[in-house]
Amino acid sequence: MEYSHSDEELIGQPIGYWSWAAAKAVVSRTRGALAGLGLSQPQWWVLARAAASAGEGRTRGEVTEVLRGYLDVGDRSLGEEIDEAVVRGWLVEDAAGRLRLTAEGEELYAGAARLQDELWAERHAGISDEEYLVTMKALQRFIHNTGGRAWHH
Predict the structure, then answer these.
(1) pTM for the full model?
(2) In whole angstroms, what is the distance from residue 86 CA to residue 42 CA?
(3) What pairs with residue 94 in β-bridges?
(4) Sheet of 98-101: strands edge to edge?
(5) What is the number of other CB atoms lying within 10 angstroms of the CB of residue 96?
(6) Residue 146 has pLDDT above 90, yes or no
């Protein structure tokens, strides 16, 4: 790969631009790939939360609590994504309000999980775990230094 600037020039490049460009590229690629399965990214998140419940299911509130900060999706949009997943037959909501994957939802989730693994490998090609760790820590430090908030705050 050829970098945009020399090492000396890269040090002076704006983190805001490059972090935005990286986020836009990753999110666009992920959303495009998931769309190929008929899923939006928020629907993937909802299915993943239901799948992580070990069959016990999750309430809308539990799903929303975890996901509300993901890419500024918000509670209203998440409710709509959950509704759509129920309408499409991927989730069922029981009388207690717990969401569980249907057989169709489990199949879709499994295919999307494989796709996510492929996308992870694609994104990380040529990047060592050490480089990734330094990048993650640097980005979190930028967030901290600017008084920003991320999902873990």
Answers:
(1) 0.86
(2) 13
(3) none
(4) 58-59, 98-101, 91-93
(5) 7
(6) yes
